[in-house]
Amino acid sequence: MKRRLQKKYLILILAYSVILLLIPYMMDYRSKATQAKHGLQTQRCPDLDNAMALWNNGDKPTNGTEMFGDMINRTHTKTHIYVHATWRTGSSFLGELFNQHPDVFYLYEPMWNMWQTLYPGDAGSLQGAVRDMMNSLYRCDFSVLKLYAGTNNISTSYIFGWKTNKVICSEPLCNAYKRDEIGLVKGEVCEKCRPRDITDLERECKKYPVVVIKDVRVLDLGVLVPLIRDPALRLQVIQLFRDPRAVHNSRMKSKLALVKESIQVLRSKKQTDKYKRLLMPGNRGNRAENYVASAMELICDNWLNDMLLAVSAPHWVQRNYMQGPEAQERRATEHHRGDRGGQEQGKLRLGGEEPFPKSKRKFVQEGPDQRHHMHMCITMADWPDLATRESPDIQVPSYSKH
């Protein structure tokens, strides 16, 4: 008798449980049917909305068609430029030309913070992180800077070189300067600007048709190939070269400022006995000088690899790379007619300096077997002279208002 009662109770409990499960299911089904009938949309979970807002940088949610259309528009209207250089090649001078252009959003060595945070990591292992940071910055996503800041609350004053950045120190972020007025930004004036949240800088970045990054921490041009191939970026690469002897001389004059990064460059080749010896120079008194001088050999190796890559690259790479080594040497050695009615014909004048000596012209014109790593290319002294000629390869930014 007791067993029968237990079975009945068990059946009742199971039936009651099934009913409790079916009731909310049926109610939910009816609710969805009603919404589908009247074209109503289900309300999102608030937490999900917040998460989506983070992905969209706080913008309003858009459907797939709008997002695709926005990507196409940005592809056709926005251009991205990377000034590919190494230390002491005059890249800051060229970068300042872009910084002064009212239609250019310019970033000065944004990867500096990464290298300082990850020191003493070797330069080679940091190349992937450098490329990923560039990819984010070109898309006006500056949240990547938080990874190396140690805090999520970063402002415009965290950006390396912000005291001379025309965008940060001019309207609407600051009233110190007007964007369309050409002139150097004074650090003491820009220091008075109130630090702005990084999201304000992102909004400004999205307004500019051209985004330019100048940095010296991409060692190998091949690292940029995935970005060059991305049609949404339209990345153009301007690579600067300078006579390695002049680069070495300049590096020696500022060796104390270049020691840490020279060590990082040397550590990228630490697996070989040759560069292990370079990392442990015997003379402690000249250790800084040895580090800086030894890194120059690796820099020249990278230059040579970049030139070989550019020469053998397919057309789609050469179209986005300015300019080929042969064109550079031809322009650097071609005869220049001066302003004295042809009296200076047969001599190369470098932007107002004395005529280029024959010994240097011979050095430039020698074959690659003679030059080895001492590969002569356009120096920054050539820029004022070459930029004024009729050239499809080199153009000086126009400062006229649009």
UniProtKB/TrEMBL annotation:
Residues 327-357 have a biased composition (Basic and acidic residues). Keywords: Membrane, Transmembrane, Transmembrane helix. The keyword Transmembrane helix applies. SUPFAM superfamilies: P-loop containing nucleoside triphosphate hydrolases (SSF52540). The chain crosses the membrane at residues 9-27. One of its GO terms (biological process) is sulfur compound metabolic process. Residues 326-371 are annotated as: Disordered. The keyword Transmembrane applies. One of its GO terms (molecular function) is chondroitin 6-sulfotransferase activity. It comes from the Eukaryota. This is Sulfotransferase.
